[in-house]
Design brief:
Layout: H1 11-47, E1 50-51, E2 57-58, H2 67-79, H3 83-115, E3 123-125, E4 132-133, E5 150-152, H4 161-168, H5 192-201, H6 204-219, E6 230-231, E7 238-240, E8 247-249
Antiparallel strand pairs: 1-2, 3-4, 3-5, 6-7, 7-8
Helix pairs in contact: 1-2, 1-3, 1-5, 2-3, 5-6
């Protein structure tokens, strides 16, 4: 799509490009993080800094290494002419430029969305199985250490919530869609795998393929899967499904007494 001629495109066309840009941005940010981590590791080893479990670097006195200290240390290790450091720095610069280019297009699309009065959008949570949101600022999200990741479902942009439910199921967020019928809100969730596929590939058809495959798998699953089982009376480590004759082992690592996923079992004659 010609971003300089964006005013001639429909919401679906524009948001299809937005999904593509978010997918591309996601990939560049992952590679950017990889090259930056490599440079930080080299700089840390050169200065005798340690990497902690909380994902920060500390010096020999366990004082946290600041952003400025790390930036200066990276510049110093690149200045040595080390071939690995120079290569990492070049790759990092390329990824930084690509990220800037993606964000420029994303910002232009946002401006056009604002100019047209903000057509409806439907966002899927990527970081976990979740509901359909009307925006990425819903207060039920972004409560963890890292911001919640979202994927835009572009073929519904500009459409109604009823049409979103028809396509994606009764998974509307109650806070984003307070006026939607109760039966359309939070009755199901969009799987993390499907939403992640949408973000990583930028392909709605790939998303639908995942949903279709998961539906087929669910159709063959016993309804007692992932529910509390009946513990053996003789004290051994087995659980019996409440819906069929399946017997499995208790997971002693997680101490879970839920029966693992399985197909319906019938007792052998």
């Amino acid at each position: 799509m010609d971003i300089n001629n964006i005013t001639n495109h429909t919401p679906v066309e524009i948001d299809t490009e937005l999904l593509k840009q978010h997918s591309t941005l996601f990939k560049h940010e992952m590679r950017h993080s990889m090259w930056l981590n490599s440079l930080e590791g080299m700089a840390a080893r050169r200065n005798g800094w340690k990497h902690t479990r909380t994902d920060v670097y500390v010096d020999a006195n366990d004082v946290r290494v600041t952003y400025e200290m790390m930036a200066n240390a990276i510049d110093a290790v690149v200045a040595t002419g080390d071939s690995y450091a120079v290569n990492y720095a070049n790759e990092l610069a390329r990824e930084t430029a690509a990220i800037v280019a993606c964000k420029r297009i994303i910002n232009a699309i946002h401006d056009e969305w604002i100019r047209r009065g903000c057509w409806s959008r439907f966002w899927l949570v990527v970081s976990s199985s979740g509901h359909i949101h009307s925006n990425t600022e819903c207060h039920t999200c972004n409560k963890g250490k890292n911001p919640t990741s979202f994927a835009l479902f572009p073929t519904l942009s500009g459409f109604s919530s009823d049409e979103a439910v028809a396509e994606l199921g009764a998974a509307l967020c109650s806070y984003c869609f307070p006026n939607a019928p109760v039966e359309q809100r939070e009755q199901t969730k969009i799987s993390k795998l499907a939403a992640a596929t949408l973000l990583e590939t930028g392909d709605v058809d790939a998303f639908r393929a995942v949903i279709e495959k998961q539906a087929k798998n669910a159709a063959t699953k016993c309804p007692g899967s992932n529910t509390e089982g009946i513990r053996s009376a003789n004290g051994n480590r087995t659980l019996k499904c409440t819906q069929c004759d399946y017997v499995g082992w208790i997971n002693w690592n997680s101490h879970s007494t839920k029966v693992q996923r399985h197909k319906p079992h019938k007792q052998k004659a």
